[in-house]
Amino acid sequence: MWAGLLLGVAVYALFGLVPAVIQVVISFTNYTSLPGAPVNNVGFSNYTAMLTTARPGFVSGLSATVVFVVGVTVGQNLLALLLAHKLSGEGRLAAVGRVLVFLPIALGVTIAGLVWILIFDPEGGPARSLFGMFGIQSAFFGSDTWAMPLTILAQIWQNAGFSILVFIGGLRAIDPQIYEAAAIDGIGVWRRLRRITWPLLAPAATVNILLALVGSFTLYNTIYVLTDGQYGTQTLGMLGFKEAFGSFEANLGYGAAVTVVLFVLTLVVAIPAMVLLRYREHRLFGGAR
To answer: What's phi and psi for 58, nearest 5 deg?
Structure first.
């Protein structure tokens, strides 16, 4: 047992802690991708540059991150909760539905992104014809108006399947007799969802909300495939990636500083959210244990 535990700790340290420490160290340097370029300690210069006009993009990236995180977290969980109700049955149709909603995860980021790009191709995609029927013309992923909403929808579409399965597991854990008693008391569907289903889904909701929150904070690959961070979609995750790897003369020191700040912001948001969600679970179930 101890050998297995030590192996797990060693693997985590090698692939988790060590790269994180190296990233923090790099964030205090002017390290670039240029071969033979000197690497010097610049102190907090990379961090102070974020809030000045020396290297613009951090403030707009922070704003885009907030919009993206809120849109994905709220939208993904609402959609997953609604579809979980429809797909939690034992019938063959529900089983096929569960497979279909999980397929986008299996496609991978690149393939899923290409699907959305083809659908919303402004030259000949199906969305162009559909929106054209209502007199709407747009460049979609090349539009400042549509790029962010469509990127949020693409991210929800690809990852909602996992959230749906988690909610289905939570729904199946609820005793059917509770719903039978509610039906006898004349409680309607909406009140049943608000007063019974949602409170009893607290553990599943905690998992889904935290995963969506942390995942959308650190995401960059979907945005990279869809818009390359253009048209108002450059979140902090995308900014850090482009600063570190976006060009031959990329500034890895500044890119590392952006990702360190992003990591701290993620903790600042995720830890209180986890505490509140766990407190909600304890308040709902603590007395019954």
So the answer is: -70, -45
